[in-house]
Structure formats: structure tokens, C-alpha cells
Design brief:
This protein is α/β, with parallel strands linked by helices and about 220 residues long. Helices cover about 25% and strands about 25% of the residues. The strands form two sheets. A six-stranded mixed β-sheet has the order 5-4-6-7-10-9, sandwiched between helices.
Length: about 220
């Protein structure tokens, strides 16, 4: 296991991240301040390797099982936003489905994905709500990317995040979620609470993997 203390890519504290776990592929460090677990930059996949992994995904709007999975985020968020709101699906992936569900509910949607919908002008607009489903674990620079998302959310708007939570060290060492080579940072409830405090946001945790933040 690497022993060098790393700068946290979320809270940017230098030397705050201590060795937490390791396996044959990667080393994992946990920040003492925001509790983010992350891997060294040298162990992150390059964009070509990332794209190759994402191209394997078979998600589709016609997949009832996938829709049911996404409904864990869709239902509580849809209950909180106004009719005919304008939303952004950040990290929409190769088969945008959550955006389709919101459109079917009467909302207007924009898409951004660095590989499949890379039109950056959508990141200069303001939105009533933003979704990031199974996205944050892929972020190489979560501080900058989450700050961008938060900056384009209107006051009073909602950000909905879906991601699996990291637990204790023993559970993490056996966790299948960390074996995906494109998963480079792992959030915990403490990390989500840290974000809410930084943003001064209303924070709602729903189930084990859905988190809603309302902008002041």
C-alpha cells in the first residue's frame, strides 16, 4: 500500500488523506476532513479506457428494470420540483433514461456527458433541478465538477445525486463497487453531510443511495 499522504480531490486539504485499503489493482485513501475515499491520480484510467468501459453499458429507456432503478431518484425529486421545470441530466451516459422520465412528467431537459453529450454550452445556463445518477464516483476532480454543477443550479433548486455509499474498512475491502476501474472516488454519508454544510443546503437522504440538496 502506498504510504504517501495525498491531497483530497474534494476538499483540497493537502496531506489529509491516509491509506485506507488496497487491492491488486489500486490503493485507496480516505480524507480525514470530508471522508472521501479516493485513489491516487496515477491510478485513474485515461479517457480512452473510460470510454471503452462506458461503451459496454446496455442501459436503455425501454428497459423497465433500469427505469425502476432510476425511480429511486426520479420519484422523490419529481415530488419536490415545480411543474414544467427545466432540468439538466449531468453525466447522462450512452442511453439517457432519467431525462426521458422527467420529460414524460412534463419537464424540459438538457443533457451533458463528456463522452456522449459533450455540448458545453448547456453548462452556461441555469437550471431548476440537476440530476447526477451514478456519476459522482467517476469524477476525477470532484471539487471543480461539483462546484460547477452547484453554480448553475438556481436558488431554491434541487440537486439529486445517486451513488452507492462507502461503509467501514472491512466492508470496503470486499466491496464489488470499487472493482469498476472507472470508479475513482467513493462517498459516504459523512461526505454528503460535508457537502451540504459547504453549500449551506437542505440535505435529504433517501434510502441508501439517493441524496437531495436544495440550494438556499
Amino acid at each position: 500500500m502506498a504510504t504517501k499522504l495525498l491531497r483530497c480531490p474534494l476538499c483540497a486539504e493537502k496531506g489529509s488523506s491516509n491509506p485506507f485499503c488496497s487491492d491488486r489493482q489500486r490503493d485507496y485513501h480516505r480524507c480525514a476532513f470530508c471522508h472521501l475515499i479516493h485513489i491516487p491520480p496515477s491510478q485513474r484510467p485515461d479517457s480512452k479506457a473510460e470510454r471503452a468501459e462506458y461503451d459496454k453499458h446496455q442501459n436503455s429507456p425501454e428497459d423497465a428494470g433500469y427505469r425502476k432503478f432510476l425511480s429511486r431518484l426520479f420519484i422523490p425529486l419529481n415530488e419536490r420540483i415545480n411543474p414544467a421545470s427545466h432540468g439538466l441530466d449531468f453525466g447522462s451516459g450512452p442511453g439517457p433514461t432519467l431525462s426521458r422520465m422527467f420529460e414524460e412528467a412534463g419537464h424540459r431537459m438538457s443533457l451533458f456527458d463528456p463522452f456522449y453529450a459533450p455540448e458545453k454550452n448547456v453548462l452556461t445556463q441555469q437550471y431548476d433541478f440537476i440530476t447526477a445518477s451514478e456519476v459522482v464516483e467517476h469524477l476525477h476532480e470532484p471539487a471543480a465538477e461539483l462546484a460547477l454543477i452547484w453554480s448553475i443550479l438556481k436558488p431554491g433548486g434541487w440537486l439529486g445525486i445517486m451513488t452507492k455509499l462507502a461503509l467501514n474498512q472491512k466492508a470496503f475491502s470486499r466491496w464489488h463497487y470499487k472493482t469498476d476501474p472507472t470508479h475513482v472516488c467513493f462517498f459516504s454519508t459523512q461526505t454528503m453531510e460535508w457537502l451540504a454544510e459547504q453549500w449551506q443546503a437542505e440535505f435529504i437522504k433517501i434510502g441508501n443511495d439517493v441524496f437531495l440538496f436544495q440550494k438556499p
